[in-house]
Amino acid sequence: MKKILSMLLSMTMLCSLAACGGETPSDEEKSPAASADTAEQSAELSSENAVESEGASDGAEQEEAAGENRDTLIAYFSWSGNTEQMAQMIQTATGGVLFEIEPATPYTDEYDTLLDVAQQEQADDARPALASEVDNWDSYDVVFVGYPDWWGDAPMLIYSFLEAYDWEGKTLVPFCTSGGSGFGRSLDKLPDSAPEAVIAEGLHVSGNRVGGAEEEVASWINGLNLT
Ligand SMILES: Cc1cc2nc3c(=O)[nH]c(=O)nc-3n(C[C@H](O)[C@H](O)[C@H](O)COP(=O)(O)O)c2cc1C
Asked: Chain centroid to CA 22: how far?
């Protein structure tokens, strides 16, 4: 019975994804931090397109793909499921290990409240505590790090994650979903939090296009020439 319910849930999620993919995307490249109004519009727009995902809020996750590429880690934070979906595509393309970055204190489920919380964390340059650690960090050569754009930047939790590990000898590959702002300021800030890392070319996909981005993701990964 549980299996049937879980299949029905998966089918419902797939339908939602298809619906999201059909909506008109925003081409705006606005920085929300520059204007609260602009930010809220941008965030609201992308919230409409964001996909609610059980997986995004379900406890820490660290799982290996069938392909078993133990050199590659795909670490991601996702509040509403878009970045998680992209992370899963990267896992399919690389055979790496998935790791969900989660805060020790979960974020609110209320979108409007989250906007304020995220903005305050950014204003405080906060480093929210992490819920869990990566096992066998030293075994990874390549670490994909994925996150949604929050107010023109990565969520502060991402900087907590980056600063918790030694990046010596590792390649950091950023990826991001957003309502249209792309990576925002985060790309410029990554080296401060992971100074030893070699930072590879990242990929941004609009949240409402993630559902159809498999080929884009695969060709980006091929172009990185990671071995
Ligand atoms: C707190 C918050 C702030 C956001 N700020 C922006 C923003 O500044 N620019 C933007 O394009 N999208 C913004 N968004 C939209 C998300 O980046 C977008 O929906 C993303 O795909 C969500 O990823 P997720 O489903 O993995 O959480 C914001 C969303 C939230 C919740």
From this structure: 21
pLDDT at residue 27, as a whole number: 36
Q: Which run of H or E residues covers position 100?
A: strand 97-100
- The count of domains in the chain is 1
C-alpha–C-alpha distance, residues 55 and 99, integer Å = 12
Other Cβ atoms within 10 Å of 218 Cβ, number: 15
Q: Is residue 22 part of a domain?
A: no
Residue 19 lies in a domain: no
Kindly give the number of the ligand 1 atom that is closest to the alpha carbon of 153. 8
Q: Print the domain residue range for 75.
A: 33-224
CATH code at position 46: 3.40.50.360
For residue 15, being part of any structural domain is answered with: no
Contacts for 64 with CB less than 8 Å, ≥ 6 apart = 70, 97, 98
How many C-beta neighbours within 10 Å does residue 197 have?
A: 21
Residue 80 near ligand 1, beta carbon < 6 Å: yes
Residue with tokens 């990267």: 90
Per 3-state DSSP, what percentage of the chain is helix, strand, and coil (rounded to 5)? 45, 15, 40
**Which tens digits make up the pLDDT trace of 118-149?**
999 999 999 999 999 999 999 999 999 999 99
Query: Do the domain assignments include residue 21?
Result: no
Residue 42 tokens, joined: 């941008």
Q: Tell me the per-residue pLDDT of 30-73, one tens digit each, with 9 for 90 and over.
A: 334 333 333 443 443 334 333 333 333 344 445 544 457 779 99
**79 CA to middle of ligand 1, Å?**
9
